[in-house]
Amino acid sequence: MRTHLTLGRLLGVPIGVNLGVLAVCALLFWSLAFVSLPNIAPSHPTSAYWFAGAVGVIAFMVSLVGHELGHSYVAQRNDVRVVEITLWLFGGVAKLEGEADDPGAEFRIAAAGPLASGVIAALSGGAAVLVGRLDGNEVLFGLLVWLAAINVVLAVSNLLPAFPLDGGRMLRSFLWRRRGRKGPATRVAAMIGQVLAVGLVVGGLALGIWSSWWTGLWTAALGLFLLAAARGEWLAAQAQPELLAESVAVVSRPLPEPLGAGSSVADLERALRHDPRAPFVPLVDERGEISSVLVRESIRRIPPAHRAEVPVGSLATPLIGLTRVDPNETVAQVVDQMGRGSDWWAVVVEDGSLTAVVCSEDVEQVLELASA
Ligand SMILES: [Zn+2]
User: Fold this and answer.
1) I need a surface site. Which of 33, 144, 277, 360 has the fewest CB within 10 A?
2) Mean pLDDT, rounded, for 301-312
């Protein structure tokens, strides 16, 4: 049986539902039509509560999507692709491809969800006030008040500083900015997340025993889910010093597609645009061997108007002139040789031929994973 359905696209993002969400819908419908609405607006026909209950469930789902679209919109503006928005048992999730590469973007992406929920709450609250002033339908008034309240709950509970909840992500971005590094910030945020999750489980159980068993059970289940998620993030962010002893192959990139001797500088420009992270393109000589490379910066020497006529050979840098890394060296040895941080790249030469390239940004990423 399929447990996942795709409903459509919004802002270019596919919206899917997991069948677990049906349980939430049924529960919400029951609490709205049989408890909340008859309490806020008593003595109306049952059919009115049922109808408003169904509308309320749909409005709640739209609110969840609105929250996730808040994250998605800001993520896309910060060059992080959104794979899909999924609604499931504990609400919505916007699945991002990769993560923001600076703390400011991380903070904005995380804050956008609760902000969207806040805006929906304010709009529903405003509409409720309007309906109240105009002596409109009491059930509609009750529904709008409920929608405002549930969006406030959504905003506030997501702001809980329990990583990976939105509030926890905001906390991590704050620590990340203060310490300048993401790994340690993730570990601290995920540790706090685990402690808060245990608190939720214990609090939920206490609530279940002494007050409402249903709310307690739900809170405890949410706590367990958060505990697993925070623990997963915490384990993933553990230091991996053994990476430093690995061979340089773990940080090297394959060579870009080489150009032939007959190519023009315009061809080189196209090749580099096609592969924006490549520091150079290898050049194949008349004998079919790679004896030189075309460095990205060298293009600037040729004015744009002449690039189509000028052959790339005029920009070639011989292999002899490049910084080399031995394929048998470890990451630690490469760092010793090349230093940290600064923007460098080196070629890997094996048995006299060029096989790969090592870039400082890849080395930095491994150092981040390796350090505690
Ligand atoms: Zn969120």
Assistant:
1) 277
2) 90
